[in-house]
């Protein structure tokens, strides 16, 4: 891919955003000084005219911004609709590309993001808007998780109240009512997610394939649908495991620091929790995985490490099922093609 002529860095805030433009002219330099615009749809046309006035067009530029939740969503959709190449990068990744020195302000941040786009343009992942159904499913899953966390808070408070010497029936009744209401809301959200998936034949078929895997339920399948449709490397199990936060990393330094390999716990916590529960389920109820679990524990492996390994196995199986569009086959054993050819030749 040919390198763009202009690299645009945008620092997003709630009410406004600041933009800088740089290019390589013998050396890296900012060719358009930082300018600020209101972060609202009515001002986006003025921003587009500003880009055109400085010869920054869709065919000669890349626009980079940090992932800031909903703050950059409308602007990113607008720029994509007008043909621009947009990259949305993790803030921590951008921060680590520069030494923490000098002033920190919106103009400085925008120039750093532009320079980051220039230095790593061949590693940038082009952002594309999700389908409307996928965006709705993502919002519903996030809302459901918020309700589940809130319900757990009420349950813990209710349990504490029931252990008090002096009971307060009204407070207990209010917590019980809130728990039931939040539970009902979660069930309604699950039904709506299923309805949205059923609207799209491709999503419906893929969800059915994922649910055929032991331990994979409707919620975990919905989370994986989002990953398969939006992740940069959707069918790379190692990449997905690292993104979710269940990829073990070595912990050692010098001759004295030695610790067990552990995951960083970055990534979406709701998906990580569902994978953990699915791994515990197959370790208990599925003979094939139960035997693996018992064998590794007998070898001295920590139980949580074995559960994490099973979660990684589930990711590999889900990727294989999604790629081949084939239902899960119990007791399936892969065969090395070279060995199979050798056996057929001898026979």
Instruction: Give the CATH H-level superfamily of the largest domain.
Output: Ribonuclease H-like superfamily/Ribonuclease H
CATH architecture assignment of the largest domain:
2-Layer Sandwich
Portion in helices: 55-70%
Shape: globular
User: Count of helices?
Assistant: 13
- Quaternary structure of the protein: single chain
| CATH class descriptor name of the largest domain | Alpha Beta
Biggest beta sheet attributes: 5 strands, mixed
> How many domains would you count in the coordinates?
3
Number of strands: 7
Strand composition percent: 5-15%
Rg calculated over all Cα atoms: 25 Å
The assigned structural class equals: alpha/beta
Strand order of the largest sheet: 3-2-1-4-5
Stretches with pLDDT under 50, minimum 5 residues? none
SSE diagram, text form:
Blueprint: E1 6-12, E2 16-25, E3 27-38, H1 44-53, E4 61-66, H2 73-81, E5 86-89, H3 91-95, H4 106-119, H5 132-162, H6 169-199, H7 201-211, H8 218-230, H9 237-244, E6 249-253, E7 257-262, H10 269-285, H11 287-298, H12 303-324, H13 337-346
Parallel strand pairs: 1-4, 4-5
Antiparallel strand pairs: 1-2, 2-3, 6-7
Helix pairs in contact: 5-6, 5-8, 7-8, 9-12, 10-11, 10-12, 11-12
Structural features, described:
The protein has 347 residues and is an alpha/beta fold. It folds into three domains: 6-123, Nucleotidyltransferase, domain 5, CATH 3.30.420; 132-199; 230-324, no CATH class. It is 56% helix and 14% strand. It contains 13 helices and seven strands. It has helices at 44-53, 73-81, 91-95, 106-119, 132-162, 169-199, 201-211, 218-230, 237-244, 269-285, 287-298, 303-324, 337-346, and strands at 6-12, 16-25, 27-38, 61-66, 86-89, 249-253, 257-262. It has a five-stranded mixed sheet with strand order 3-2-1-4-5. A hairpin with a 3-residue loop joins β6 (249-253) and β7 (257-262). It is globular, with a radius of gyration of 25 Å. The two termini are 49 Å apart. The mean pLDDT is 88.
């Amino acid at each position: 891919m040919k390198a763009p002529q202009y690299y645009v860095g945008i620092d997003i805030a709630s009410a406004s955003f600041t933009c800088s433009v740089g290019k390589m002219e013998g050396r890296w330099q900012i060719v358009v000084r930082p300018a600020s615009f209101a972060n609202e749809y009515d001002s986006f046309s003025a921003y587009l005219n500003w880009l055109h006035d400085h010869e920054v067009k869709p065919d000669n530029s890349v626009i980079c911004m940090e992932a800031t939740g909903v703050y950059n969503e409308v602007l990113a959709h607008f720029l994509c609709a007008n043909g621009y190449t947009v990259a949305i990068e993790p803030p921590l990744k951008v921060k680590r590309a520069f030494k923490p020195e000098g002033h920190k302000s919106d103009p400085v941040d925008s120039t750093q993001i532009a320079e980051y786009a220039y230095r790593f343009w061949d590693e940038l992942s082009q952002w594309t808007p999700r389908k409307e159904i996928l965006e709705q499913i993502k919002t519903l899953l996030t809302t459901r998780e918020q309700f589940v966390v809130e319900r757990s808070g009420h349950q813990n408070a209710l349990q504490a109240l029931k252990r008090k010497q002096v009971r307060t029936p009204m407070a207990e009744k209010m917590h019980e009512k809130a728990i039931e209401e939040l539970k009902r809301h979660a069930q309604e959200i699950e039904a709506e997610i299923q309805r949205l998936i059923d609207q799209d034949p491709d999503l419906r078929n893929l969800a059915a394939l994922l649910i055929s895997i032991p331990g994979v339920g409707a919620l975990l399948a919905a989370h994986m649908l989002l990953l398969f449709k939006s992740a940069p490397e959707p069918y790379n199990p190692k990449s997905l495991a690292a993104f979710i936060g269940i990829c073990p990393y070595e912990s050692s330094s010098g001759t004295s620091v030695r610790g067990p390999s552990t995951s960083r716990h970055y990534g979406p916590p709701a998906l990580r929790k569902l994978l953990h529960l699915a791994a515990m389920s197959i370790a208990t109820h599925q003979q094939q995985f139960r035997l693996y679990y018992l064998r590794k524990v007998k070898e001295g492996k920590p139980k949580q490490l074995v559960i994490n390994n099973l979660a990684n196995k589930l990711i590999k199986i889900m990727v294989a099922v999604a790629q081949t569009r084939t239902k899960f086959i119990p007791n399936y054993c892969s065969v090395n093609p070279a060995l199979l050819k050798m056996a057929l030749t001898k026979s």
